[in-house]
Design a protein that fits this description.
Blueprint (H helix, E strand, L loop, with lengths): L2 H10 L6 H7 L2 H19 L3 E4 L4 H13 L4 E5 L6 H13 L3 E4 L8 H4 L1 H19 L4 E3 L16 E5 L2 E4 L7 H10 L60
Parallel strand pairs: 1-2, 1-4, 2-3, 4-6
Antiparallel strand pairs: 5-6
Helix pairs in contact: 4-8
Bound molecules: iron/sulfur cluster.
The site of iron/sulfur cluster (SF4) has 13 residues, from helix 7.
Length: 248
């Protein structure tokens, strides 16, 4: 599948030239069907090389459930760090136990308290590099994410199909889902979620960099009180394929 063919498919989806309009004007059922259509396209064209990135958050659980409905043999990967909360680790272990097609990656580098002084570098070592490793080892040519364009200030410009890296398509099938529609899906299809959401978190990451807030911005509790507040770890903003591992 060439990049231009992916672009042609994207353009064939109704309304894809104005995603902001679709966010507000497609209803829940239409968004679910659109997500399945995107997933079908990915599995038809990339087969086993279409792989789900599962961050263990609510959006990832929606995309993992949808992907399994479209392709029961779908493969996925999780990147964990030794800073993940105990609840997240337990949730991950149960999920992997029930889903042997999910492979876990993580860095063995010791970074001490780097998140306090240089969170970008910490994320680079503990998150971005293991994702690159997963992309290489699993021979991923289409990675499927749970990214949504209404999550926060850094996520407004993504498309449902992206061609950022040479040889690596990124598919965002639930890009149009609002937070409410994510919870609607999880409730209707009885998909398990990390118990930390019940405490008030709306976006989950590593323990030292994740807070409960009352801000409107869904990702406002990520890297609170730092220059990275509400930002990104880097996996959605950096190249992932055929990149030399950083000298860390
Ligand atoms: S979220 Fe925080 S602890 Fe986790 S990798 Fe990034 S900076 Fe490090």
């Amino acid at each position: 599948m060439s990049a231009s063919a992916a672009s042609t498919f994207q353009k064939s989806l109704p309304g894809s030239e104005d995603l902001a309009y679709l966010v507000d004007n497609l209803h829940f059922g239409q968004k679910v069907e659109r997500a399945k259509q995107l997933l079908r396209w990915a599995f038809d064209n990339y087969g086993d090389n279409a792989v789900v990135a599962n961050s263990l958050g609510k959006d990832s659980m929606v995309i993992w459930d949808l992907a399994k409905r479209v392709n029961p043999n779908v493969k996925g990967f999780i990147v964990t760090t030794y800073y993940k909360p105990a609840e997240t680790i337990e949730f991950m272990n149960n999920l992997v136990n029930d889903n042997p097609n999910l492979k876990v990656y993580g860095s063995a580098h010791k970074v001490d308290d780097l998140y306090k002084t240089d969170p970008d570098k910490c994320c680079q070592i503990l998150k971005v590099e293991p994702v690159r490793q997963a992309v290489e080892e699993l021979n991923v040519s289409c990675w499927i994410t749970g990214l949504r364009c209404t999550e926060g200030r850094t996520r407004t410009d993504f498309k449902e199909i992206e061609e950022r890296d040479e040889g690596l398509i990124k598919l965002n099938p639930i890009l149009l889902f609002k937070e409410r529609e994510v919870w609607q899906y999880l409730a209707l299809f009885q998909v398990p979620v990390n118990p930390l959401y019940a405490e008030g978190y709306r976006s989950l990451g590593c323990a030292p960099c994740t807070s409960i807030t009352t801000e409107d911005n869904e990702r406002a509790g990520r890297w609170l009180n730092s220059s990275k507040c509400g930002g990104e770890c880097g996996i959605h903003t950096q190249p992932l394929k055929d990149v030399k591992t950083a000298n860390v």
